[in-house]
Specification:
The complex is a heterodimer of chains A (110) and B (119). With 110 residues, chain A is mainly β. Helices cover 0% and strands 44% of the residues of chain A. In chain A, strands 1, 3, 4, 7, 8 and 9 form a 6-stranded mixed beta sheet that branches. A 3-stranded antiparallel beta sheet of chain A has the order 2-6-5, with no helix packed on it. Classes of the chains: A mainly beta (110), B mainly beta (119).
Chain lengths: 110, 119
């Protein structure tokens, strides 16, 4: 049950687009369309941003989008804003009927 | 308001036990599966355990199997995590989280309860 692999940090200027990758295996990310993404600001609980690879919950900005290719899922934030600065985690359902989170990515708005 | 509120955390010695609770409100509790997710200080999220709507199916991360037990009381709208043989590496903020309906995502999170395992 190894954590999914994410880049430790990604940065961008306001208005730019950034993409965060999340790499797993065929037993998790590649095997199911059950990848979700969470935003976490310091001292706060995580917030669901994307579910089932590419779906946005009600109330989440359409600047956030998700996709998947093979064993790698991606979260794209377009029109980067200062409020997007946070930690982001991916998560996947696994073949063992468990869940696994990614290692986490710190997004910095320059 | 849909809400999850954890309690029961504290400081415990290695080898000790603790029971966490998560009180739910604002939704039909037994319609949803639930999980415990922990976050060690300065570290990332780790899924610990999950339980289906009626408690008939449970799952655990390998590192807690045989030591932790998840359960729920649908009459009390409460989720539990019984933790035994605690280790220093179990030190973390423990969140309960609700599985989104017909999805494997966690759509509602509690603020967490802190567990510190130290001699």
């Amino acid at each position: 049950q190894s954590a999914l692999t994410q880049p430790a940090s990604v940065s961008g200027s306001p208005g730019q687009s950034i993409t965060i990758s999340c790499t797993g295996t065929s037993s998790d990310v590649g095997g199911y369309n059950f990848v979700s993404w969470y935003q976490q600001h310091p001292g706060k609980a995580p917030k669901l941003m994307i579910f089932d690879v590419s779906n946005r919950p009600s109330g989440v900005s359409n600047r956030f989008s998700g996709s998947k290719s093979g064993n790698t899922a991606s979260l794209t934030i377009s029109g980067l804003q200062a409020e997007d600065e946070a930690d982001y985690y991916c998560s996947s359902y696994t073949s063992r009927s468990t869940r696994v989170f990614g290692t986490g990515t710190r997004v910095t708005v320059l | 308001e849909v809400q999850l509120v954890e309690s029961g955390g504290g400081v415990v010695r290695p080898g000790g036990s603790l029971r966490l609770s998560c009180a739910a409100s604002g939704f039909t509790f037994d319609d949803f599966a639930l999980s415990w997710v922990r976050q060690a200080p300065g570290k990332g999220l780790e899924w610990v355990s999950g339980i289906n709507w009626n408690g008939g199916s449970t799952g655990y991360v390998d590192s807690v199997k045989g030591r932790f037990t998840i359960s729920r009381d649908n009459a009390k709208n409460t989720l539990y995590l019984q933790m035994k043989s605690l280790r220093a590496e179990d030190t973390a903020l423990y969140h309960c989280a609700r599985d989104q309906y017909l999805s494997e995502a966690f759509d509602i999170w509690g603020q967490g309860t802190m567990v510190s395992v130290s001699s």
